[in-house]
Write a structure and sequence with these properties.
Elements: H1 3-23, E1 38-45, E2 49-50, H2 54-64, E3 69-72, E4 79-80, E5 85-92, H3 93-123, E6 130-132, H4 142-152, E7 165-167, H5 169-175, H6 178-188, E8 194-198, H7 201-210, E9 214-218, H8 222-232, E10 237-241, H9 249-253, E11 259-261, H10 264-267, E12 274-279
Parallel strand pairs: 6-11, 7-8, 8-9, 9-10, 10-11
Antiparallel strand pairs: 1-5, 1-12, 2-4, 3-5
Length: about 280
């Protein structure tokens, strides 16, 4: 399933849930401001980052009050620097106050995800290898974080359990063997990619003979990765997973594998420090 086709509906749903938990029955603090008051506000980044989350911010404003207008100075994927204004907002003061935290939460998280993605992608920008995310995303924000990953320059692995097979240790045990699991996958959904996770060279050889499209080398040493690449001879795509960090990425890429999947791109995200301030 195409991520682009899911983004619009995910954005609407994400914002609806976020506002429901934050606003609840009403923003009693915003009610202290006269109903007729209008204001202008500016969102500024306090640190260097890769910006992401524009459509989630706009949707937050739309669901709070369609009278809020957004004038953007940046686009998703742009590099921004500390002190740089990102967007100017105008509209009813109460509505701006109500939208503030939910809007910033989305912008901070998604910009943090895009920023870490950029750090990974930039390290191998000149090499024929793709850095992939995983399913280790915040519950309910799968599509949003995978979008942010793409804004940072890395690529998406499968979106969920529905769009590709990933045959892991427990699947193999339940099916009886790697070959049996691959055969069952081909029968169930012939057009879906079939990936098999292996833990040693013997399992790798078996997955290769079974005709897997992609073979995930889980916690392989660099020497074992090189051995798998030599044995593979381009028959399957090879993905490395487990223990991948910014420090180890370059040496892994040099082995000749096709993909590296990194859970921390979406799991160990530090939100970017942003603030919204009313303007005179």
């Amino acid at each position: 399933m195409d991520l682009d086709a899911l983004i619009e509906q995910a954005t609407i749903a994400n914002v609806r849930v976020a506002l429901a938990e934050d606003v609840g029955s009403g923003d009693i603090s915003a009610a202290l401001v006269p109903a007729e008051a209008t204001a202008r506000a500016e969102v500024v980044t306090r640190e260097d980052a890769v910006f992401c989350g524009k459509r989630w911010a706009e949707e937050t404003c739309r669901q709070v009050d369609r009278r809020i207008t957004c004038t953007w100075h940046v686009e998703d994927g742009d590099t921004v620097h500390a002190g740089e204004p990102l967007v100017e907002l105008s509209g009813p003061a109460r509505s701006l106050l109500t939208a503030e935290r939910t809007m910033l939460n989305f912008l901070q998280l998604l910009s943090g995800t895009a920023t870490l993605s950029r750090r990974y992608s930039s390290l191998v920008a000149s090499q024929p290898i793709a850095v992939l995310d995983t399913r280790k995303t915040l519950p309910g924000l799968r599509i949003a974080q995978k979008y942010a990953v793409r804004c940072g320059g890395c690529k998406n692995h499968r979106l969920g359990l529905f769009d590709a097979f990933l045959i892991k240790e427990n699947h193999i045990a339940a099916a009886g063997s790697i070959a049996a699991a691959v055969t069952a996958a081909r029968k169930l959904s012939p057009s879906s990619p079939v990936e098999v996770e292996v833990e040693n060279i013997a399992e790798f050889r078996t997955a290769l003979m079974a005709g897997a499209d992609i073979i995930m080398l889980d916690d392989f040493s660099l020497d074992a990765m090189r051995e798998a690449v030599a044995m593979n001879q381009g028959q399957a795509k090879l993905e490395v997973s487990g223990g991948v960090t910014l420090d180890t990425l370059a040496s892994i890429a040099a082995t000749g594998v096709d993909y590296v999947s990194v859970g921390e791109i979406t799991k160990k995200v530090l939100p970017i420090d942003l603030s919204m301030r009313f303007k005179d």
